Amino acid sequence: MTERMTVGVIKELDGPIAHLVLNRPELRNAMNTPSLDVFVRHLREIEQDPAIRCIILRGVGKHFMAGADMKAFKTDIDQSNGDLRSLFEERVLRDGNRFPQLMERMPQPIIASVRGGVIGGGLAMALAADMIIASDTAFFSATQINFGLLPDGGVTWNLTRLVGPRHAKKLMLLGEPMSAMEAERIGLVSQVVPDADLESATLELASKIAAKPRTSLNSIKQLVNEAPLTTMGEALQHEARRVGDCVSHQDFIEGLSAFLEKRKPNFA
Fold first, then answer.
1. CATH of domain 214-260
2. Which phi and psi angles does 66 have, rounded to 5°?
3. Every domain range in the chain assigned CATH 1.10.12
4. Three-state SS string across 49-110, please?
5. Which of 25, 212, 219, 233 allows an S-S link to 61, with CB 3.0 to 4.6 Å?
6. Strand partners, 31
7. What are the two backbone dihedrals, phi and then psi, of residue 21, each rounded to the nearest 5 degrees?
8. What is the pTM of this model?
9. CA distance 247 to 52
10. Residue 60's closest CA among 19, 93, 32, 94?
């Protein structure tokens, strides 16, 4: 396993699985701009690495991520010229809007492995993943309304798409925590496991995904992401094109041969 440690984030490569680890446990992994810069850089590096087929996103310590570093946030406000509208719009465009679209377009499926607080920007980051596997200690909270703000980082879009407008409004309008079990019930979370089993269950899931053919993984992820924005006719056209991508790859012949020969496929 190779490891690259930079400001607030650790990048680890373990064969076809990449681990991105939020590493500010003393602040419940709250993110500031330098940490987010590193996180985005790691994502872009992984995006370009054809050897990586799955990403695990997790936090060090008892919490996934508590959102923005509020001390750094307050410092930015104190040092501003009083034009809070420009400051906040620029901050959202600079920080909150960078990672959701990048995580959505990346070819590799992303698993958010969460425990403890998944709060504010932490909720945005988890929602931008393709799956969420949660410890039974996890809780989810869109706290921004309690500061006179609203969720950004794609939360209003991703949450509504995942759980529907009524559940999304309840979570965002109240700003109260939701348990892992309730999050699983409404479809926000893919799986809830005992806290002691979170790492092993996450790695098992990631290993199963990483064993699948890359072109198929990428195609399925993108087609599902596009589905809410397309008509049935458009989706059928996109499916046909993606099927063409798959059958043009050697993994299709390997998968078919393995099925006929009753053996486990060995995808490239």
1. 1.10.12
2. -100, 15
3. 214-260
4. CCCCCEEEEEECCCCCECCECHHHHHHHHHCCCCCHHHHHHHHHHHHHCHHHHHHHHCCCCE
5. 25
6. 68
7. -120, 120
8. 0.91
9. 21
10. 19
131-135 vs 191-193, strand pairing mode:
parallel
Using left for φ > 0, alpha for ψ between -120 and 50, and beta otherwise, residue 62 falls in alpha
> Considering only CA atoms, which of 18, 26, 16 is closest in space to residue 8?
26
Q: Is 135 helix (H, G, I), strand (E, B) or coil?
A: strand
Consecutive H or E run containing 117:
strand 117-119
Q: What is the dihedral of CA 97, 23, 53, 121, to 10 degrees?
A: -30
Domain 2-210 CATH superfamily? 2-enoyl-CoA Hydratase; Chain A, domain 1 (3.90.226.10)
What is the residue-level pLDDT of the chain in tens, covering all 268 positions?
555 555 789 999 999 999 999 999 999 999 888 888 899 999 999 999 999 999 999 999 999 999 877 676 667 677 667 677 777 777 666 667 789 999 999 999 999 999 999 999 999 999 999 999 999 999 999 999 998 889 989 999 999 999 999 999 999 999 999 999 999 999 999 999 999 999 999 999 999 999 999 999 999 999 999 998 899 999 999 999 999 999 999 999 999 999 999 999 999 8
The CA–CA distances, whole Å, from 136 to 31, 117, 182, 198 equal 24, 11, 10, 9
Q: How far apart are the first and last CA of the chain?
A: 20
